[in-house]
Design goal:
The protein has a single domain (about 5-30, about 40-130), classed as OB fold (Dihydrolipoamide Acetyltransferase, E2P) (Beta Barrel), CATH 2.40.50. The protein is built from 1 helix and 8 strands; from the N terminus they run βαβββββββ. It has one helix spanning about 10-15; strands spanning about 5-10, 20-35, 40-55, 60, 65, 75-80, 100-115, 120-130. Strands 1-7-8-6-3-2 form a 6-stranded mixed β-sheet. The termini are far apart. It comes from Oceanobacillus piezotolerans. This is DUF961 domain-containing protein.
C-alpha cells in the first residue's frame, strides 16, 4: 500500500535562525477523536498560526546565496497547556503594526507532506514571545 502522506522530522532550530514572526491567529486546541471524527474535551494547548516576517537566513542555491526565501510563509505552533489570554495580545489586528515574536523552547517539529498539497510545518514549543526588530537594513523584512 502506498502512502499518500508523510510526516518528516524537521530541523526547526536551524530553520529558526535569522527569522522573526507575526502571530496571525491564536486559538485553543483540543484533542481530535479519529473514531468519532470530532474534537474531545481534552485540552492540548494554544495553537498559533505564525507568518515569517523577517528572514535573514542565507540559503545556498545553484545561483548563489539568497536571503528571504521563506518570507510570508505560515506554519503552526502548539504551546502545550498554554493559556489563550497570554497570546491574544500578540495577534495582528486590522491596520495595527504586527508584533514581532520569536519561538522559544522547541520540543518537536514535523513537516507533513501530502500528495498534491502544500507541505504543513507544525512545531511544538514552550513559548512564543514578543521581541524587538534588529534595526540593521535587511533584505528579508516585512515589519
Amino acid at each position: 500500500m502506498k502512502m499518500a502522506y508523510l510526516f518528516k522530522k524537521f530541523d526547526f532550530d536551524e530553520f529558526n535562525k535569522g527569522k522573526l514572526y507575526m502571530v496571525k491567529e491564536a486559538k485553543e486546541k483540543y484533542k481530535w477523536d479519529r473514531e468519532k471524527m470530532k474534537e474531545t474535551d481534552e485540552y492540548e494547548g494554544v495553537q498559533l498560526i505564525l507568518e515569517i516576517k523577517q528572514d535573514d537566513y542565507e540559503y545556498e542555491t545553484k545561483d548563489g546565496i539568497v536571503t528571504g526565501v521563506n518570507l510570508n510563509e505560515e506554519f503552526q505552533v502548539l504551546i502545550p497547556d498554554g493559556k489563550i489570554e497570554d497570546y491574544e495580545k500578540l495577534v495582528a489586528r486590522g491596520f495595527e503594526a504586527p508584533v514581532p515574536v520569536k519561538v522559544e523552547g522547541i520540543q518537536n517539529a514535523e513537516l507533513f507532506e501530502s500528495k498534491g498539497k502544500k507541505p504543513v510545518l507544525k512545531v511544538w514549543a514552550d513559548d512564543v514571545v514578543k521581541t524587538t526588530i534588529d534595526q540593521s537594513p535587511s533584505v528579508g523584512t516585512n515589519f
